[in-house]
């Protein structure tokens, strides 16, 4: 039965083993992150790579010496030394790489390589973490005015202070993305917090085929699914690893959310929890439930337009030869083209408003 990697927590805290390197990746070229649906590449072609999007990562810190990773600020809440946010566990370094590994000609290219990373070490070197540290991390992220908070960890229950901090982040228009929880045994469908809170985007996990990794996720509070099997991650000594787990799917979703936010900002569209989540579901195009019905309107319009234009060309050719020296049926052709243009404009406007 599935036992996914990540930091799991009981109501107070939990000790987890140091995040090991599941499988070292040997490569002499820079590796792109998994892009099953082609959505990341689509954003990249528009030069949407997370520019100026601020992402706070609440985890075990970051490997400061990793050539693929840069950060704007960092802080430690696990000891009295607030400046010691170096990762000695490995989990936080993997999360940071999936989200924002830089495009620098080596190692890994993260999903949002130009995003600004803010590192809050809330879990110690053994992976132990409690509500107090996470709440402090949330409040610090709010003070930094970040756009997204990634929480690749989970509590088995809620907490009033945690909920208050989450609500405060939402009120500041911050997108909070958290794990829907590890599955440790068959039938394990417990609610994981803070992912279970209604205003948090809770992430489930897909396999390499784009299908839900385990049926238990269908019974959990999951808002969006993201790839989580064999994701390339950054690790100690500038190594790359392949890792599987809900933690990594959560990081994938956070990186993708940065692309969505930047895209909406460039288009002058509204950016909030609902619009970002709705677009993530469409753009990730996971295929588990099929795309939303209205997405197919664009495909239908394309097919209908091509068929209609081919029909008009054939009709014009036949009419032209039959009507010599009579007039060409210009009125019929122009009327048909006008109808096609109006149908396309109305249909595409409908799809646009439904998906935003």
Can you offer a commentary on this structure?
By secondary structure, the protein is an alpha/beta fold. The chain is 37% helix and 15% strand. It has 2 domains: 7-284, Peptidase S8/S53 domain (Rossmann fold, 3-Layer(aba) Sandwich); 295-354. It is built from 8 helices and 14 strands. The strands form 4 sheets. A 7-stranded parallel beta sheet has the order 5-7-4-8-10-11-12, sandwiched between helices. Helix 2 packs parallel to helix 5 (246-267), helix 3 runs parallel beside helix 4 (160-171) and helix 5 crosses helix 6 (273-284). The longest helix is centred in the C-terminal third of the chain and has 29 residues, at 295-323. It is elongated, with a radius of gyration of 24 Å. The active site is at residues 59, 91, 247.
């Amino acid at each position: 039965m599935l036992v996914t990697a990540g930091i799991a927590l009981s109501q107070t805290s939990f000790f987890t083993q140091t995040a090991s390197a599941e499988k070292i990746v040997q490569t002499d070229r820079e590796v792109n992150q998994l892009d099953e649906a082609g959505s990341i590449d689509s954003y990249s072609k528009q030069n949407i790579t997370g520019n100026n999007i601020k992402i706070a990562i609440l985890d075990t810190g970051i490997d400061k010496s990793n050539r693929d990773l840069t950060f704007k600020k960092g802080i430690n809440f696990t000891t009295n030394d607030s400046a010691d946010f170096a990762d000695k566990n490995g989990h936080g370094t993997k999360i940071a790489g999936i989200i924002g590994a830089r495009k620098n000609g080596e190692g890994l290219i993260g999903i949002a390589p130009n995003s600004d990373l803010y590192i809050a070490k809330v879990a110690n070197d053994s992976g132990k973490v409690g509500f107090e540290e996470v709440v402090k991390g949330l409040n610090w992220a709010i003070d930094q005015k970040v756009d997204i908070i990634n929480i690749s960890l989970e509590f088995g229950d809620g907490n009033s202070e945690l909920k208050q901090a989450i609500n405060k982040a939402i009120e500041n228009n911050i997108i909070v993305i958290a794990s829907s929880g590890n599955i440790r045994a068959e039938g394990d469908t417990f609610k994981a917090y803070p992912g279970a809170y209604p205003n948090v985007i809770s992430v489930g996990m897909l396999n390499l085929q784009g299908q839900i990794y385990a049926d238990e996720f269908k019974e959990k509070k999951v808002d969006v699914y993201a790839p989580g099997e064999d994701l390339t991650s950054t690790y100690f000594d500038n190594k790359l690893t392949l890792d599987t787990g809900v933690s990594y799917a959560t990081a994938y979703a956070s990186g993708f959310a940065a692309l969505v936010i930047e895209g909406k900002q460039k288009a002058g569209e509204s950016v909030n929890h609902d619009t970002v989540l709705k677009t993530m579901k469409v753009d990730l195009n996971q295929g588990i439930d099929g795309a939303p019905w209205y997405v197919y309107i664009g495909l239908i319009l394309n097919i209908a337009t091509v068929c209609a234009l081919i029909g008009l060309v054939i009709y014009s050719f036949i009419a032209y030869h039959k009507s010599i020296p009579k007039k060409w049926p210009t009125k019929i052709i122009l009327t048909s083209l006008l109808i096609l243009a109006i149908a396309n404009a109305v249909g595409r406007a409908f799809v646009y408003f439904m998906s935003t």
